[in-house]
Each structure stands twice: as C-alpha cells, then as structure tokens.
Amino acid sequence: MIHKNTHILIVGLGLIGGSYARALHKAGCHVEAIDQNPDSIGYALHEGFIKAGSTRPDPEMIGQAQLVILGLYPKVEIEWVRQYQHLFAPGTLLTDVSGVKGGVLDVIQNFLRPDLELVGCHPMAGREVYGVRNSTDAIFGAANFIVVPTDHNTEEGIQTAIELGALLGFSKVTRLTIAQHDEIIGFVSQLTHLIAVSLMTCNEDENLQNYTGDSFRDLTRIARINENMWSELFVMNKAPLLAQLDAFQAQLGKLRQMIDQEDFDGMKELFRRSTARRALFDR
Amino acid sequence: MIHKNTHILIVGLGLIGGSYARALHKAGCHVEAIDQNPDSIGYALHEGFIKAGSTRPDPEMIGQAQLVILGLYPKVEIEWVRQYQHLFAPGTLLTDVSGVKGGVLDVIQNFLRPDLELVGCHPMAGREVYGVRNSTDAIFGAANFIVVPTDHNTEEGIQTAIELGALLGFSKVTRLTIAQHDEIIGFVSQLTHLIAVSLMTCNEDENLQNYTGDSFRDLTRIARINENMWSELFVMNKAPLLAQLDAFQAQLGKLRQMIDQEDFDGMKELFRRSTARRALFDR
C-alpha cells in the first residue's frame, strides 16, 4: 500500500523520473530524489515536486526510502543497485522504468539482497525531449503501464507496483513475463523507432519538407532519437527485436511483390485486414 | 484570375472535392458540383456550400463552368474527361487532385481538346475517412499544394492553379515536374502507407493495443487505408515507388546489421543524423 507517509525515493531524475516525481507529488506523496546533476535536483526542489534531494547516494536518504523508483538507463540501473543496495533498509521495494527486462531484471534479481524486492515496471510513455525540465505528469494519462512479475516477486510487491501505475495516472496496467515484455516491446516500441530512423535517413533530398504531408511527419516523429538510450536498448533486446524486424521486412516484401505483379485482389484484401486491425487501437 | 463570379465546377464531391467546395464557398466563390451519389449532392446543397448540383453530367452546368476541379480517382478522371470534354466551353481551365501524375496528366493532355487546358495539382492533405460528409476546409491550412506544369500548360493556367492553392488556404504551394512529383510522392506518401500496412499486418497478436505506446499508433494511423484508391495509386506509380521501397529496405537492413554487430558508434552516428534531419520538418 502506498500512502501519504510512504517515503518514495527516485534515483535518476530525468524525463521519466521527473514525471513520476511530479505525478506522485500531485497525488500527495512524499518524494525525494537522487541525481548526479545538481541542476536537476535544484530545479525540482525549486519547483517543489520533491521534498529533498541529493547529488550523491546519501546513505540516510537511501536508508529511509520505503518505495524506490530507479529512473536509470538499463546498464546504469544494474550497476547502481549492485553498488548501493547495502544502504537500503530491509523490506524496501524497488521498481524501475527500463525499456527492456531480459538482461536487467533477471540480472539484478540474482544479486539482490534477499530482504529487498525489485518489481520490474515499464511506463509506456515518453517524449522526444529529455531531462527533468521537460518532465510532465501529462504523459501518463492515456498510456499503458506494464508490470513484469518474476519468481522473485511477492504478490504484495506486485500489487504495490500495480497501485503505483494507477497512482501515476496510467489508463491501463498490464502484467507480462520478461519474455513476453521484450518480444512485444521489440515490436511496438523498438521496431517502430528503427523504421522511423531508416525512413528519415534513406533519402538525401534536402527539400522534402516542402512536399510532405502528415503521413510522413507521423511516421518520422520518433526519428528524433536519443542515441545513447536506444542503441543500448536495441542491442540488449537483440534477439527478439531482430526477429520482429525480419517479420516486418518479410511482410513488406510480400506487399512489394503484390504491387509488382499488380495483384489488386491481394492488396485490397490486405488493406481491408489492415483497416480492421487498426480499428482496435482507436481509443 | 479567380473571382467571385468565376463559375467553379467540382466533378466528384468526395472528401477532397467536398473540402475544396467548402473552402471556395467560404472564400466567396460560386461553386457547383456533379457527383453520381444523390446523397452527396443533396447534403452539399442542404449545407449550402454548393449553389447547384447534379447527379449526371449536366451539359448546361458543364458548359458554363470556367474553372473545373476533377475530384476523381486517376482512372475515373481519365475516362470522365475523355467522355465529357466535348461539353466544355473553349478556354475552360481544368485542374485535378490525383495522387499520381505520370499515366494521368500526360495521358489526358494528349487527348484533351486544344482549346482546353488541364493543370495537374496535388493537394497534399487528407483524412482517413471518406466522403463529402467528412470533408472540411480545415485540412488545407498547414499543408502543401503541388502544381505540376507540363509543356501543355500556359503560364496563365499555371498561375491560376497557384492562386487556387492559396485561395484554398494551403500554407505552401510548390511546382514540380511529373517525374519529380511521382518520385517524391512515392517516398513521402505512398511508401509511408506501405510501411504502416506492413507493420499493422505482420504481427497476429490480438492484444497489442494493451501494450502499445504512441509510437506504434503514430506509425499505423494510416494503416486505415482506402483499398481502392491506394491499390490503384501504387500500381500506377510502380517504378518510382518500388525504387523508394528498395532504398528504405536497404537502409533498414544496414541498421539491422549494426544492431547484430553491436556497432554502437555506427548507430549513434546514424541516430544523430536522423535527429538533425527530422528537425527540418518541425513547423
């Protein structure tokens, strides 16, 4: 149960960590934060959505935390927990935000102190800009929150994570296994970024913006991409992601053939199927 | 010059034809329409954005037209002009809206009466719904209008087409040759639809909408696709379109290789380039 006196600690006060802080503060929770960047901590203290902050892993702050949100990139998340978990009080619940779970969740849970618990979470929300100054709780409202329970988790810990998703304002909270999560994220999130980048960089025309319509803008919005975070995610999720990419390329190849062979019936049938499936996504 | 007494005739009162009618009526012009569908004509007369309408090619209406907008699919456009051009008065200016110019503009201009003129236009605007009841002049505001002059056109005819684009409210009017138009449209408009459809249909998971984020929705908005219009456009623009598709697939293949080989430097360099190019499109 998360209540107004629960000490929430956010490690990594970036776009997502900052957005969590704003949302939880608005919900009346007690939020503190640790981030290497003094500007981030100073900004959040000034804005008032954290009650205390530190630019170093303050032992007292960490020791008092009851619910911890690791708002860090996957590799950094693993190393931070490895280095500082000895400072947590027994019974502390940790959650994260990383976009890939295999190679992160299982790794951490294998060295985590037995009296601590980490429940993997993935807030399916974001913006193409970064940092705490761009954080906003508005990104959670119409989005999906995924909780990734494993054998290392208790039902109580899982329920608290689900409660966290609801508290943040997510419209939908789902449970997936590590394998399911990585496969699905490979498809709906990572492959889409690969497509956007390829579309953006396969044509050198300097004046495309004069001729473009909304479809091109829509497909390339996410071509504005954080190179550090995404290159790491793609490689960490290599196997499921490349499988999804191959499936997509194969389908596009089939469509190419239909056009080449002027198979109108085949195309129309496919387009009707596409239209019907897309209707499932309209909110 | 288009003025308030210019008799404008719209042949084909669908989404685009209807949107033209609304915009031109709002600008104070005299607009009439011909469409096979009595409901479309009745609706537009009732709403008041056309002054007269007919469900058949009324000779008097056609004979009085000074500026004609052919709001028809490419193949229908060709046949309609072939069948009814004899009804136009000398000096009538025709324009169209078709999404492909090669195989349409050149074909028509080769059999068009010498005392008539057709200036090819492409309003780069649309919606995923169809029909006059969904038409709206709001779709032109932030969009691009392309005029496609050929050797068959006079400078006066071209200027009138440019004026039409401005009158409709387009934020940008550009001139392209048939070949340039079809190559660019193959890339920014048609390829994007092929990608969206392939993404929508390459994964059979029934519950994707529970896990999706904005990136997937954005990339598949246009997966809701009019199967008749688009299959026709793709085949008519086959050569340029398949060339663009191959370039896209090659780039995606290079990215696949970078992930497989864990080439972080290569990926980051590509992502920075992608981000820089995307910035050109922000309005």
Describe the 3D structure.
2 copies of one chain form a homodimer. Helix content of chain A is 49%, strand content 13%. Chain A has 283 residues and is of the alpha/beta class. In chain A, strands 3-2-1-4-5-6-7-8 form an 8-stranded mixed beta sheet, sandwiched between helices. In chain A, strand 4, helix 4 and strand 5 (93-96) form a beta-alpha-beta unit. The longest helix of chain A is centred in the C-terminal third of the chain and has 24 residues, at 178-201. The first copy, chain A, is elongated and about 70 Å long. The two termini of chain A are 30 Å apart. The model of chain A has no long low-confidence stretch (mean pLDDT 94). Chains A and B meet through helix 7, helix 8, helix 9, helix 10 and helix 11 of A and helix 7, helix 8, helix 9, helix 10 and helix 11 of B.
Features of the shown structure:
11 helices; elongated; 13% strand; 8 strands; homodimer; alpha/beta; 283 residues
User: What's the helix count of chain A?
Assistant: 11
The shape of chain A is elongated
Unreliable runs of chain A, pLDDT <50, ≥5 residues?
Answer: none
Radius of gyration of chain A: 21 Å
| Largest Cβ-defined interface | A-B, 84 and 84 residues
Helix content of chain A: 40-55%
- Distance from N terminus to C terminus of chain A (CA atoms, Å) equals 30 Å
Q: Give the neighbour order of strands across the main sheet of chain A.
A: 3-2-1-4-5-6-7-8
